[in-house]
Design brief:
alpha/beta, 325 residues, globular, nine-stranded mixed beta sheet, single chain
Length: 325
């Protein structure tokens, strides 16, 4: 994208001199880290800073990242690369957030890739919104060796774009059909609504569910249906390891319990239903447990379908009346 096209995209909402920070939490991705860094290098946004923290990798990820950034540092406004003893993803993300100098802070894992317009499109969306503190978009899958696939993250989750675009139905859609995560998240750093401890909750095993739901329930999260990143499927990745299922379920339960105090009566009811459904997944496969598990799953499905139908009707009415739902 040339500068004229970029100026047309951002209009008056975002000046091309705006600094965008890209935070990379890195852990044992020596094989992929150059792909990630080169995708940032090829971004159409002119003013970028790269912040990379190696969280105690046992391979040579840090050395590879350090050498690459030293060779390509003239492309960036600022480069910061360091390594630390392993402290976990959420704490590392908060450290990256506070290291950033940019107006916007994008997060990408050290094995994923950005499209050239990924940063500019998301930053423009945030700059155009008065209330949102974060934006996320869809991502395509790619194989471990970098082959792009036709399936996207949101399609694989059967996400409902109309519900995600609606302030009234986004929370329930994310709660009942989780489709967040991946490399599509960008935060507004000027926000004074993030905790002094950082935007991410550090006592959870992973960062995304609690963060997305917290912002969504407060009306501070924007969804973009565009596919703007590539999400690498790595066989040993946390999200795909079968032996991590119990940790994922426990982390999800902990995240939902943290969201409960923020919710109104109806959303609290939905959260408790989801918690019951997660608990049922861990029960022994006895007949009564199986019946309760099936019943709770059916209730979640029915509610999700009713919400989606209502969201679609509201969307059509809004288009007909040219008002925002």
């Amino acid at each position: 994208m040339n500068k004229l096209q970029l100026n047309t995209l951002v209009n008056d909402a975002l000046d091309t001199d705006t600094l965008i920070s890209v935070g990379i939490p890195c852990f044992n991705h020596a094989e992929f880290i150059v792909d990630t860094l080169e995708s940032i290098y090829e971004s159409d946004w002119p003013k970028l800073e790269i912040l990379l923290i190696d969280d105690g990798s046992s391979d040579n990820s840090y050395e590879i990242a350090l050498a690459w950034t030293e060779e390509h540092k003239d492309r960036f406004f600022r480069v910061h690369v360091e390594r630390q003893k392993n402290i976990g993803l959420c704490k590392t993300l908060n450290r990256l957030y506070f290291l950033a100098d940019g107006d916007f802070f994008a997060v990408i894992a050290s094995d994923d890739k950005l499209d050239p317009d990924s940063l500019s499109v998301r930053a423009s969306a945030l700059a155009s919104s008065q209330n949102a503190d974060a934006v996320y978009s869809d991502s395509r899958f790619m194989t471990q060796d970098g082959k792009l696939l036709n399936e996207t993250l949101h399609n694989s989750c059967n996400a409902h774009s109309v519900s995600l675009l609606s302030r009234n139905f986004q929370f329930s859609e994310l709660l009942l059909c989780w489709s967040g995560g991946g490399p599509g998240l960008m935060l507004r750093r000027q926000s004074n609504r993030f905790s002094e401890l950082g935007p991410f909750c550090e006592d959870l095993p992973y960062e995304d569910l609690e963060f997305y739901l917290r912002l969504s329930i407060e009306g501070r999260l924007i969804y973009l249906p565009q596919v703007l990143q590539s999400y690498r499927i790595v066989e040993q990745s946390f999200s795909r390891s079968k032996d991590k299922k119990k940790i994922l379920i426990l982390g999800c339960q902990q995240a939902l319990i943290k969201i409960l105090p923020l919710a109104g009566f109806y959303n609290k009811t939905l959260i408790k239903l989801k918690l019951f459904r997660l608990k049922a997944d861990s029960w022994e496969p006895k007949l009564l447990n199986r019946i309760l598990r099936i019943a709770s799953g059916a209730m979640c499905t029915i509610i999700r379908k009713l919400h989606r139908l209502t969201a679609a009707i509201c969307f059509r009415l809004a288009n007909a009346r040219k008002i925002r739902i």
